[in-house]
Write a structure and sequence with these properties.
The protein is mainly alpha-helical and 123 residues long. The chain has helices spanning 17-20, 32-45, 51-64, 68-75, 79-86, 97-105, 110-121; strands at residues 11-12, 28-29. The relative contact order is 0.15.
């Protein structure tokens, strides 16, 4: 059984989106843990072999504001390696250290993600 954390989205930062006229980089922040979990569940439903590692990478790239090439450069990965991560072909235990470092900085909990990985993979 997969447990979905039900936290409201979006959460606002210092400036309200209503007063600034819309969602802006400064006005919108999200709970990256909730986002990662939701992406992983969707990817697993779509058949991704390593949905959690893909979701971590996708969420961190989204949080960074970079496009694929920019994020690959920022974390020191070849573009093909980043695409493989986002496609779910790389296992959680094989995540590159640059992704793991950002995962910790973003406040993602590795033990909870390992548990989610086991749940989604049925192991």
């Amino acid at each position: 059984m997969v447990h979905i954390v039900d936290m409201p989205e979006p959460t606002t930062g210092e400036t309200s989106a209503a007063t600034s006229g819309g969602v802006t980089r400064r006005a919108y922040s999200t709970n990256v843990s909730t986002l990662t979990e939701r992406i992983a569940i969707r990817l697993a439903a779509d058949g991704a072999e390593h949905a959690v590692s893909a979701a971590i990478t996708i969420a961190l790239r989204g949080q960074s504001g970079h496009d694929t090439a920019g994020f690959a450069a920022a974390v020191g990965l070849a573009l093909a390696d980043l695409r493989a991560l986002e496609a779910g072909t790389i296992a959680f235990v094989d995540l590159p250290s640059a992704i793991c470092d950002r995962m910790h900085t973003a406040g993602l909990e590795p033990l909870l993600l390992v548990d989610l990985d086991h749940q989604l993979r049925g192991t």
